[in-house]
Specification:
It is a single chain. The protein is α+β, with helices and mostly antiparallel strands. The strands form 2 sheets. Strands 3-4-5-6-8-7 form a 6-stranded antiparallel beta sheet. A hairpin with a 2-residue loop joins strand 1 and strand 2. It is elongated. It starts with 6 loop residues before the first strand and ends with a helix.
Length: 137
């Protein structure tokens, strides 16, 4: 990765550019259909998510729909959108930065999750057996 003015994907957001008061510090890879940056504002780090290609009307429409849905959800299991601007050529929204990865967090809990999953499978099997017994009577 070269330092300085580094272009991302199909548009010109670069390291140290300011977007809505947020300074782009780095790219966060592996974001699928979006472009995700680590940004800083007033000494705090956040995540800024925007579209890969702002010239693709379908992509922009999907991105805006995703943002509106997330803005409407208030749940402790869904990350909160802190700021957004969906009325610009390169729409974006900002979320808290969560250090680490989901894969790291999941690997820590894998054994417990697997056990819980197996318990649910056994419960379903018991229900199926009970229904079979009722049908045979």
């Amino acid at each position: 990765m070269k330092l300085g003015k580094q272009n991302f994907k199909k548009y010109d957001m670069t390291i140290n550019d300011v977007v809505g008061g947020y300074v782009i510090k780095s790219i966060i890879p592996g974001a699928g259909m979006a472009q995700v940056f680590k940004v800083e504002k007033e000494g705090n780090l956040y995540v800024l998510k925007t579209v890969q290609n702002p010239d693709d009307e379908i992509e922009v429409k999907r991105f805006k729909r995703e943002a509106r849905i997330m803005l409407g959800i208030q749940d402790k299991h869904v990350i909160e959108i802190l700021d957004s601007n969906l009325n610009v050529k390169e729409p974006y929204y900002v979320m808290p930065l969560c250090e680490g990865s989901l894969a790291e967090r999941v690997s820590i809990m894998t054994e417990m999750v697997l056990k819980l999953f197996m318990i649910q499978v056994l419960r379903i099997e018991i229900l199926n057996l009970k229904m079979l017994c009722v049908r045979m009577e």
